Amino acid sequence: MTANHSWDIDDFVRAGEATVRRLARYVGESQRGETPVIRRTPPRELAERLGLARWIRDGGMTAESYETFLDTYLAEGTRLHHPASVGHQTAAPDFPAALADFVHGASNGTMAVYEMGASAATVELEVLRWMLGKVGFPEGGGVLTHGGSLANLTALLAARASVAPDAWTDGVPGDLALLAPPSAHYSITRAAAILGLGERAVVPLDVDDLGRIDVARLPGALERTRRAGRRPMALVAAAGATATGLYDDLRGVGEFCAGHGLWFHVDGAHGASALLSDGHRHLLDGVELADSIIWDAHKMLRTSSLAAAVLVRREADLDAAFRQRASYLFYGDQEFDLIGRTVECAKAELGLKIFLNLAWRGERGLGEHVAGRYATAHRFWELARERPGFHCPYEPESNIVCFRYGTGDQAAVRERMLAEGSFHLTSVELGGVRHLRVTVMSPATDDKTLEALLDRVPALSPPL
């Protein structure tokens, strides 16, 4: 007799209720800072503790044994909702986005093809229309992808199609170049390699001491590129930079690109959400001049990973990025399909996460979240400047602050914090000098947290 592998609905309900209870407890104790912010148990030890090999081999998990597994699993993770989580540019997701993940996990509306998920595709199209309006692309087009790296690749595919329309069929011309500041996200160089240009085709732009594009020196960079026999495929600017959170002069760069016929791409993965804040949208002045921009929702729009938008000023440019033939997918009238604009064939219901956060919090609520995190970072900068031994190389424009304490090994201080689980922060080199880096993402991070961090750094550092 053939086994019935349909869902046991009662078992699902019991396990689902247990999941909600445990996640609620996990987020609550994380927000209150009642546990270490990070644990780094070695993989072999953790695999044994979780019983991974046994479960993989034998199966047999029940709703009850799943609860025990989930308790350990959550306890050993990094807690993004924790006030001391000031490390990476990953959101402490809001609960509406978590509900969207739960819905997707059950329904699996893989909606790059409209007939596979009409409601999911419709939500995505409407979310994209809203994002395009915020950027200033009323007639543009867009698509959601699984992350900013894939989004940058997709946007630059559109740029390649504009400059070298036959590259898809005939191969990439050897004279293309990509202009970008050295501070650009690593995915820009990675995209150049994937696109067939090669890393050496990335021409570094002149920047100031903090890595921002020097607009006055752009003519020289363009002249060097053309003198080397290369055709610029695109010029990339940051809103804001991954390391510092600082914004390039988008209007200055955009006007230069428009005057010289260059594709202008803005990597707004982290900082485009400032468009929702009345007090910070000026940081993106000129973004409407871009030919393309990416915008990650899983950073400042509080969705879970991953959900990133590729937005273009002219819809046809995105449609030209891919040229595919597959008789089982591409045929007839496919007006509402998104598969022709994205690397992914099966795509998660990404728009639902953004939509539910908007539906619960509203555009203004998300803008207030952005403003709040930017304000907390600025407060850290103010507090740090008042303390002896601390040095901040710039006034923050976003929720990212870089700083040093004394002249000791900053990376070693960070490692001590991670080992004790007191704070999760990162580090970066600025001008060849290692700095500690705070990224304020959790709404739970407050003045008490900032003061505690400023107390802990000297305690773990060599005496001044």
From TrEMBL:
<dbReference type="GO" id="GO:0005737">
    <property type="term" value="C:cytoplasm"/>
</dbReference>
<keyword id="KW-0210">Decarboxylase</keyword>
<dbReference type="GO" id="GO:0019752">
    <property type="term" value="P:carboxylic acid metabolic process"/>
</dbReference>
<keyword id="KW-0663">Pyridoxal phosphate</keyword>
<dbReference type="InterPro" id="IPR015424">
    <property type="entry name" value="PyrdxlP-dep_Trfase"/>
</dbReference>
<comment type="similarity">
    <text>Belongs to the group II decarboxylase family.</text>
</comment>
<dbReference type="Pfam" id="PF00282">
    <property type="entry name" value="Pyridoxal_deC"/>
</dbReference>
<keyword id="KW-0456">Lyase</keyword>
<dbReference type="InterPro" id="IPR015421">
    <property type="entry name" value="PyrdxlP-dep_Trfase_major"/>
</dbReference>
<dbReference type="InterPro" id="IPR002129">
    <property type="entry name" value="PyrdxlP-dep_de-COase"/>
</dbReference>
<dbReference type="GO" id="GO:0006520">
    <property type="term" value="P:amino acid metabolic process"/>
</dbReference>
<dbReference type="InterPro" id="IPR010977">
    <property type="entry name" value="Aromatic_deC"/>
</dbReference>
<protein>
    <recommendedName>
        <fullName>Diaminobutyrate decarboxylase</fullName>
    </recommendedName>
</protein>
<dbReference type="GO" id="GO:0030170">
    <property type="term" value="F:pyridoxal phosphate binding"/>
</dbReference>
<dbReference type="GO" id="GO:0004058">
    <property type="term" value="F:aromatic-L-amino-acid decarboxylase activity"/>
</dbReference>
<feature type="modified residue" description="N6-(pyridoxal phosphate)lysine">
    <location>
        <position position="299"/>
    </location>
</feature>
